[in-house]
Write a structure and sequence with these properties.
single chain, 5-stranded mixed sheet, Rossmann fold, 2 domains, 45% helix
């Protein structure tokens, strides 16, 4: 994933004529914090926080708890966050954090201890005006609330703006839970409208029906009732019904910890089968590298929406773009989460609490503007891949003075 990100960076930097020193700096973080967290019972875990670039504002990016977290992964995601915040016009930089741990193997007490010790190790390097972390894989509002409390105990800060993704009671923003999925629907709708296809009914499949994928489907049900969800997957299997799946039923089933391999209200297919379906839109909301050299030739969907980070490899991008597939790149398509994180930070700093309607209106404004910028650049520069175009737009904003 890091190599692919650097390839796109090189292409975009070359297109803009950026010199070698600038290109080198793009691939290096401002700071990397690598440390170990040891619990009182002796368990120890490797931890990271990479602060990539703060040219536009405080570092911004999530913290993930996953057993496969590595420094290279965190570096890549921090780089993408710098590009993402720039691409959608936020006055923020890019960072990312993580702990190599399976949180399901910890007790609640161990999880809280780990979380608070993560903040203790980093509190001098983060804060409302330095670095504002957020939740990511396997972290949630409860964990972020612990982080905010620990940070405030250590520093005396009372703004609640040190982290975003908090519970509503602790200063979180309405609309934050659905923001990433909602943003993807807004981006796709705007793109289709610009093409002149905004009113056409569509079929779509969601690879990865987790938080992002399920909210994409729920928002589609609200905003685009003529779009039909025909397939959805989790990590083990996918469900398929060409006549349409019941989004509410799927959400309820997953909320009850159901697995799609046991879902009896639709046909069960494999994840690879889902990727190969003849649908209008393929929503990639699972893991990185989901579409790769092994399966790229089976993709039939005209539109692919990168709701996960780097779900399509560099080689697969080249192939699909060459076959005239339309790929909405991750640094714009999945930016809804960081946009509403920014809006939460703004509310905290101003001591305000906005309605969900106001939050969603501002989210829509950012998503539509970024999508228009992407459409205009691709249209004016015929032959430029959409992913490369997204990187170009981000770099232009990073280096414009």
């Amino acid at each position: 994933m890091l190599d692919d990100t650097h390839r796109f960076l090189d292409l975009a930097a070359e297109r803009l004529g950026l010199d070698a020193d600038v290109r080198k700096s793009l691939k290096q973080a401002d700071a990397e914090h690598v440390f170990q967290i040891e619990l009182e019972n002796g368990k120890a875990f490797q931890a990271y926080r990479v602060q990539h670039n703060n040219a536009r504002g405080p570092y911004k990016g999530g913290i993930r708890y996953h057993q496969n977290v590595t420094l290279d992964e965190v570096r890549t995601l921090a780089t993408l966050m710098s590009l993402k915040t720039a691409a959608v016009g936020l006055p923020l930089g890019g960072g990312k954090g993580g702990v190599a741990v399976n949180p399901r193997e910890l007790t609640a007490e161990e999880l809280e201890e780990l979380t608070r010790k993560y903040v203790r190790a980093l509190h001098q390097h983060i804060g409302p005006d330095k670095d504002v972390p957020a939740p990511d894989v396997n972290t949630d509002a409860r964990i972020i609330d612990w982080m905010v409390h620990e940070y405030e105990e250590l520093t005396g800060d009372t703004s609640h703006a040190s982290f975003t993704g908090k519970s509503i009671e602790k200063g979180g923003s309405l609309g934050r839970d659905a923001a990433t999925g909602r943003g993807g629907v807004l981006a796709l709708t705007e793109w289709l409208t610009l093409e002149g296809n905004g009113d056409r009914p569509l079929t779509y499949a969601v690879q990865g029906f987790g938080n992002v994928g399920s909210f994409f489907a729920a928002t589609t049900q609200e905003m685009q009732p003529d779009w039909i969800l025909v397939a959805a997957s989790d990590s083990e299997a996918a469900v398929y019904d060409p006549k349409g799946l019941d989004v509410d039923a799927l959400q309820a089933y997953k909320a009850d910890r159901g697995r799609f391999k046991n879902y009896d209200k639709a046909q069960t297919i494999t994840n690879e089968d889902l990727l190969a379906l003849d649908v209008d839109v393929l929503v990639l909301a699972g893991l990185e590298d989901a579409v790769n050299e092994q399966n790229m030739k089976s993709i039939k969907a005209k539109y692919l929406v990168e709701m996960a980070n780097s779900p399509i490899t560099y080689k697969a991008h080249e192939y699909l773009e060459g076959k005239r597939h339309v790929i909405l790149p991750d640094i714009i398509a999945n930016a809804g989460g960081v946009i509403v994180s920014y809006l939460e930070w703004v509310q905290n700093r101003a001591g305000e609490k906005w309605s969900k309607e106001k939050v969603n209106q501002r989210l829509a404004k950012y998503m539509k503007s970024a999508t228009n910028d992407l459409y205009d650049y691709v249209t004016e520069n015929h032959g430029v891949a959409m992913k490369e175009a997204g990187f170009v737009l981000a770099l232009k904003k990073l280096y414009e003075k």
